[in-house]
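QA checklist item 7 of 12: single-chain prediction sanity check.
[x] sequence parsed
[x] length recorded as 175
[x] structure emitted
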Amino acid sequence: MSEHEPGSEQESKGSDSKASTVELYEKMSKIFREKFERAGSLSEEAFEKAMSETREWGERMRDNYGDDVSKVTEFIRRDWHDAIRFTREQTRRSFDLERLQAGAMDLISRLAKSAGTQLEDFASRISERLTYKTGEIAGAGTLQCIKCEQNLILDKATRIPPCPKCHNTLFRRSY
């Protein structure tokens, strides 16, 4: 039995729901990453197919995790959209077209523009999903309070607490 098939790891029905939800997030995030990497494409279609297959796996685990499957699916979607947006921004910053030779510059410029346009279109459709809220689960990294700009550092996947400074409940990813 594969590690991603239901029943491969038994969950205790009486376990702490917060811990099991974080565990579900970690499992589903790993499954999504593997499926998205196997697609070999950064297209929206590849993203949605990997997301759909991950959601299907989660649905088969509903007996163990209940209604948390839908919430966790959206947390993973949000986190991956945010990571794609960050990668797109970093890629744009890393190109210094002044240093490239004229022939290569045109080719790279067209490729970067095409990839940038596709990623920008993709990112614009998901930007509203990039708000992190207290009580949701997020992967490791830094979140910044939308109200006071206080950084909240998460060492691992965990439920998001209120802002330690102003107790606000809305955050954005900070890099």
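[x] summary fact logged: Residues 17-129 form one domain.
[ ] second reviewer sign-off
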